[in-house]
Structures are given as C-alpha cells and as structure tokens.
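Hey, can you fold this one?
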Amino acid sequence: MDIFGIPHQAFLGQLLLGLVNGAFYAMLSLGLAVIFGLLGIVNFAHGALYMLGAFAAWILFDQFGLNYWYALVLAPLIVGAAGVVIERLFLKHLYKLDPLYGLLLTFGLALILEGVFRELYGVSGQNYSVPEQLSGATNLGFMVLPNYRAWVVMVSLVVCLGTWYLIERTRLGAYLRAGTENAPLVQTFGVNVPMMVMLTYGAGAGLAGLAGVLAAPIIQVSPLMGSNLIIVVFAVVVIGGMGSILGSVLTGLGLGLIEGMTRVFYPEASSIVVFVIMVLVLMVRPSGLFGKEN
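Sure. Predicted structure:
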C-alpha cells in the first residue's frame, strides 16, 4: 500500500522519526520557554546543558556503573544544580539590564562548556546503549516501532504537559508568574522571590538535561550535539511565541512532523524547512503563533 506514491512503511517511518525529533524540540524549547517566559533570559547555554545531560548519563555509567534508569533521575538533577550555580554566579546580576547581556553571557558559557568537553573527550562521540527493558521493537502491522523511540515520545509528552499544567494551572505557577512581574508585591506575602527565580532557572536547565539523557541512546554523546540542535530549537520557540510554554510544546511536535514529511517529499529542503516557516510566521505574526501581541 502506497501513501502519495510512497511505500507506507517508508512514509510512516519518516513520520515516526519526525515525531521523535519533535519530542526533543518540544523538550528543549520547553526549558527555553520557561526561562524566557518567567525570567526574561534568552538562554543560549541551553544546548550546552542538553549536551551536559547526555554526558552526565554516559559518565555515570562509564565511571560509576549506574545504568540508564539512575541517569534518568540523577543527570537532570546534576544539570539543574549546574543551572543554579550559573544563575547565582552570573545571571542574577543581569536581570535589570537589557536581555542582550544575558544572551551574550549564556552564549559565552555555552562555548566554554563545549570547549572543555571537546578537550576532555574529543568530537568523535561516545556510545550509550539503549536500556535492555526498552530494546527491540514492536510490530504494529503497518510498521515496526522501536520501543525506545516510543518511550522518548511518551516521556516528552508527559513532562511537557505536566510542566505546562504546573506553571499555568497551579498556585505555585501563579507565584512564579507574579514574582517575575512584581517581585516586591509577592515578597510581601512571604515568598522568597530570589530563591524562586534561582530554582526556576535550575528547573529549566534540568529539563535540558533530561532531554540529553533521552537523546543519549539515540545519537552519539558528543560535545557538538547541543550546538547542532540549539539553533533549530530557538527557531521553534520563536515560531511558537517567546515565553509561550504550550506554544513551544505544540510547535516543537508539529515542526518535527513537518520536517519528517519534508524528508519524504523534498529531502533537499528538510534542513531549512523550519527556518522557512519561521520567516513566514514572523511576517504574518511577529509575536509567534501562540505569543501575546504587544
């Protein structure tokens, strides 16, 4: 059976690949949207934190013998702690300045982290095995679905929707949003706003670290893995609307599918289709698809 003249297995395989890529776009853009939406920081170090999460998983296994399931918990905590250190040492001094300063600082930090890991481990990449419980594939009749890729999509959806609900629908989320808009008022209610801001940045960094752990068994763990992805993720955030959490999640998944379909019908354009869509969206709606108009 063919779909648009293409064998259905090839078509659905590319659709699945696009969905997996979209899951990573959604996870990374989620962290970016949380940090920008609540703190107003364009966090260019996000790709490096994603890389750090993957390396944390690999080092935990290689040096300490801890498997994937331990890494799934510990690596995001390690990266989140690194995010807290970055916020306390550097970013807290920039909140009242132009956002450009935060962008330049985090860009510099990303280059430093990438350079350190290139010096320590080179650029050839390290292999990280799929956990035994998620190895193999499931025959769905119309296609064979790798179990680990299905797991990645499921975890990404749960984390993304859970984060959106936490920030948009709970009292804690209301405190976070209010604290970034009017910190003195919120502090009168006994809320430690600086601590809340610090933990928010750490949580956004932890989301990048979690995405890195999920990616480690699929792609080689390399110092370049973050820089290869972060530009696309920034485009996803711009299309969805800077600071829009739900917009980033939906746009990330949607653009992953569009990218996968482009590989089927016009492979030469698959590497630029996201940026073409970004240009078109900005021409029609500069605030992004889900962003708030000024």
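Strands lie at 2-3, 6-7, 137-139, 144-146. Let me know if you want another pass with a different chain boundary.
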